[in-house]
Design a protein that fits this description.
Elements: H1 4-22, H2 28-47, H3 50-66, H4 79-89, H5 94-116, H6 118-130, E1 135-138, H7 145-156, E2 160-164, H8 172-175, H9 188-196, E3 202-206, H10 216-227, E4 235-236, E5 243-244, E6 250-255, H11 263-266, E7 270-273, H12 279-297, E8 305-307, H13 312-316, H14 326-344, E9 351-353, H15 358-361
Helix pairs in contact: 1-2, 2-3, 4-5, 4-7, 5-6, 12-14
């Protein structure tokens, strides 16, 4: 004998799931599949095990209705504006910036050609013309590989997501787990799409050379599918179990060196070398980029810190040569923290750092 109020609640849950599926624009085949799962739930009310199955179905439908099947952002392919963004966020790297602008120019031409040939080619031709190049930034730690990916997304006005590969050892982390497993979830790529809410974001595959040795071969196999324009039009995530079009995603990968990356993956990427910075370049970066930003983040006024020219070489190279700007950033962070503390203690409101007093401000190593 059933408790009618409880049974009524269960049917309400099922009806809510049906409404959620009907109200969302998802591919027809996938919608039919979701509705079949809901229909199966209604039959399980009579035979038990409803609660566990409901959680699985509700979780699956939540993911399917949240993915951006037809939502995309409009690209801003203005080369002049893009150059302004790159110059504002990064000093130097002229060759790298030029390569990025060339890629954006190609994307703009492809988009225009796609519009011109829309009627003649149909949907298949549009997807062909909208495929984006796959970039690989190669360089030492701190040379700006990750931050320039953010700038590309900002320049194009696309959403941005980062997928870290450091220590990744299981290809299922990328491809997702089958729904028959307990606590199964989609892979990192699908999660990135859900976070951005668009089908054409910039997705950063960060440090693809730092996957574990045990899982390297299988992870490289998944990367080939992600980066190959002939395959990523129908990427299969084990949890979603439905082909997902990733052809409009702009994938950007980074690595410290290419020796641990398979030939098949390298064949599908456009490598761009990120050069090391000279001391002169670091001084300019410190003065014009790092110090103003760090002072703002620390709540300091623009006039709170003045640094003499002959102090900057000590700030740039406190321990010896460093290819990137990580040490420079840490040193300037330390200076700003010391000044903030001195202001709070009432020792002054503005400080001039000279060779005579720099030991008071520079962090000790």
């Amino acid at each position: 004998m059933y408790c009618m109020p409880e049974k009524t609640v269960l049917f309400k849950e099922i009806i809510e799931l049906e409404k959620k599926v009907d109200a969302t624009r998802i591919p027809p085949e996938l919608k039919e599949k979701c509705l079949r799962l809901v229909e199966r739930l209604s039959r399980m009310i009579k035979y038990g095990e409803y609660s566990t199955e409901y959680e699985r179905v509700a979780h699956y439908i939540d993911w399917m209705t949240a993915l951006p099947w037809d939502k995309k952002s409009e690209d801003r392919l203005d080369l002049k504006m893009a150059k302004e963004v790159l110059d504002r966020n990064h000093y130097g790297l002229e060759e790298t910036k030029e390569r990025i602008l060339e890629y954006m120019a190609v994307l703009k031409l492809k988009k225009e050609k796609g519009r011109e040939g829309e009627k003649a080619r149909g949907e298949e031709g549009i997807m062909k013309f909208m495929r984006a190049p796959m970039l690989l930034f190669v360089g030492l730690v701190g040379t700006g590989k990750t931050t320039i990916a953010y700038s590309i997304a900002e320049a194009m006005e696309r959403k941005f997501a980062r997928v870290p590969f450091g220590g990744l050892g299981d290809p299922l982390d990328l491809r997702g787990q089958s729904r028959i497993r307990p606590d199964s979830e989609p892979g990192l790529i699908i999660k990135a799409l859900r976070r951005t809410g668009t089908k054409n974001p910039v997705v950063l595959l960060d440090e693809i050379d730092r996957v574990t040795e045990e899982g390297r071969a299988s992870i490289m196999g998944v990367l080939v599918e992600l980066l190959d324009p002939e395959q990523n039009m129908a990427f299969r995530d084990h949890y979603v179990d439905y082909p997902i079009d990733l052809s409009e995603v702009l994938f950007i990968a980074t690595c410290n060196n290419t020796s641990n990356i398979s030939v098949a993956v390298m064949d599908r990427l456009e490598p761009i070398q990120m050069p090391s910075y000279t001391d002169e370049e670091k001084i300019t970066i410190g003065k014009d980029f790092v110090l103003p930003r760090t002072m703002q983040e620390a709540g300091l006024d623009k006039e709170a810190i003045k640094i003499d020219a002959d102090v900057w070489p000590k700030i740039v190279r406190p321990l010896g040569y460093d290819a990137g700007v990580r040490t420079l950033q840490r040193t300037i962070n330390g200076i700003c923290r010391k000044v903030a503390k001195m202001i709070i203690q009432g020792k002054g409101k503005a400080f001039q750092i000279t060779t005579a007093n720099m030991k008071e401000f520079l962090p000790t190593w």
